[in-house]
Design goal:
Layout (H helix, E strand, L loop, with lengths): L2 H16 L7 E7 L18 H9 L13 H9 L3 E6 L4 E6 L1 H8 L4 E9 L28 H4 L3 H6 L2 H6 L8 E6 L21 E4 L13 H10 L1 E2 L3 E2 L6 E6 L9 H16 L3 E4 L24 H11 L3 E5 L21 E6 L23 E4 L3 E4 L6 E4 L2 H18 L5 H10 L18 H13 L2
Parallel strand pairs: 5-9, 5-10, 6-9, 10-11, 11-12, 12-13
Antiparallel strand pairs: 1-3, 1-4, 2-3, 7-8, 14-15
Length: 467
């Protein structure tokens, strides 16, 4: 089933509802009809994909397809010649985000290769630099070496680790080494490899990218991302150690603190493309979309079908290329909305609910199922008073939300990926679901229940040892 074909009807339907703007300048998505006469070829993938990305695809026998090819440069130049500023490029969506006024947009819409245009946000930023292409990250993160895995050495991080039997993986030496994790959020102020994370080597965080402002760093903005990443990456012996302290992290700012608009979903989709091309194995996104500053963009429950949002569709493309995308289910369980958010509705997203101290659903954790009846959340992890590094990097804090349960689970998936490197993304997620506390009776409250990562590891190893 082609997800590109599923994407195009959404774009066409969205255009009439969202393109009528009274403002003289805004941000628009411009979709192209094809990639005809591109100089790139699926037979020369190293021109646009890293060797690490190709190795991940090889593990699941995923071919490089036309969807992976960069957009047609001649089309981009023609759009720019109409007076628009090119803001972002998307190969999976086959189009560009532009800053344009209505007259420029009208010229663009008349170009013969343009098949859709629609409004995604007001113009709020001036670019100060161009968004770089992620490098090829082949070197492993600094190794910490053998460490005692106990409450004394792990400090305040041990309780959340042990609740999902992640300490068993750490005792076996699996702490995420060799795994490249991307984190999508609204900013990462104070996140540095040394003071914040506790490492001496910069390789712990080899790259960060700001899709919102497109300035030189994503280590600013909302403190939410700093809290999230610390639950996985921190390594402060005798004080606080996260669930995957030896993984490496790429940080992507995709959320705009100046308002909620559909552009953030496109940022998310493009960040997934960048993560794919860089060779990322695993993504954490403690994000969700239901309502927006422009109410015409709001979703309804019927939209939670995994096929409406660009972000949800992009998760499918990422999964088809061997990646695992973990996302928060949402914090709307006590609100009128109650349901999970987008992109937790994606079939291939590993959507995480929140547990309280008694391993019951935290009162705020969003309910499934999806609009088309699929089980969500997938599993649920600790989400109340989760220990994290304070956003300023000085001391610790306790935080609530599926924004915290998701990265706790993400970190332990990184440990599984290290432990069983030959396992596919599908096998990893199937093993976690099959060994969780509600595996035989999943529901719309906790999904398959609380994960047991020691049991998931045994299941994966056992299946590998079968003749």
């Amino acid at each position: 089933m082609s997800r590109l074909l599923l994407l195009l009807p959404f774009l066409l339907l969205a255009a009439p509802a969202l393109a009528q703007q009274t403002s003289n300048a805004g941000m628009y998505f411009v979709g192209f009809a094809d990639k005809a006469n591109t100089p790139f070829s699926v037979d020369r993938p190293t021109e646009f994909l890293s060797t690490r990305s190709l190795a991940r695809r090889d593990k699941i026998a995923a071919p490089v397809t036309e969807l992976d090819l960069p957009i047609q440069a001649d089309y981009e130049r023609a759009v720019a010649a109409a007076g628009a500023q090119i803001w972002l490029r998307s190969r999976w969506m086959n189009g560009v985000v532009v800053a344009a006024d209505e007259q420029q947009l009208d010229k663009i819409a008349r170009l013969p290769f343009v098949d859709t245009t629609y409004y995604v946000a007001p113009r709020q930023y001036e670019r100060s630099t161009t968004l770089p292409r992620p490098a090829n990250f082949d070197q492993p993160a600094p190794v910490v070496g053998s460490v005692p895995v106990n409450e004394t050495f792990y400090g305040y991080g041990f309780t959340d680790l042990a609740r999902m039997n992640g300490d068993s993986l750490h005792r076996l030496g699996f702490r995420g080494r060799g795994v490249l994790v991307a984190v999508f959020d609204g900013g990462f102020p104070s996140v540095g490899y040394k003071d914040f994370l506790g490492y001496d080597q910069v390789e712990a965080v080899p790259g960060n990218y700001d899709l919102v402002e497109q300035d030189s760093t994503a280590l600013d903005g909302s403190t939410h991302g700093a809290t999230v990443v610390s639950t996985m990456a921190a390594h402060h012996p005798f004080f606080f150690i996260g669930t995957a302290p030896e993984a490496r992290y790429l940080l992507f700012k995709t959320e705009n603190s100046r308002g909620e608009h559909r552009l953030e979903e496109i940022n998310y989709a493009i960040a997934l493309e960048m993560a794919d091309s860089a060779g990322v194995d695993l993504v954490n996104s403690s994000l969700g979309y239901t309502t927006f500053s422009d109410k015409r963009m709001d979703y309804t429950y019927a939209d939670l079908n995994g096929r409406t949002s660009p972000a949800s569709i992009a998760i499918g493309h990422a999964f088809d290329r061997g990646m695992i995308v973990v996302t928060s289910a949402g914090n709307s369980g006590a609100d009128d909305w109650k349901h999970i958010g987008i992109p937790a509705d994606a079939e291939e997203a590993f959507s995480i609910g929140a547990l309280d101290a008694a391993d019951q659903r935290a009162y705020f954790s969003s309910f499934g199922p999806t609009a088309d009846g699929r089980i969500k959340p997938d599993v649920s992890g600790p989400g109340v008073m989760v220990t994290a590094v304070a956003a300023n990097g000085k001391g610790l804090t306790g935080a609530n939300g599926t924004s915290l349960s998701a990265p706790l689970v993400t970190g332990l998936i990184a440990c599984l990926l290290q432990a069983v490197p030959e396992a596919t993304n599908q096998e990893i997620l199937d093993a976690i679901r099959a060994t969780a506390s509600q595996a035989t009776a999943p529901d719309a409250t906790l999904g398959y229940g609380k994960p047991d990562f020691a049991a998931a590891y045994r299941r994966l190893i056992g299946r590998r040892q079968q003749p």
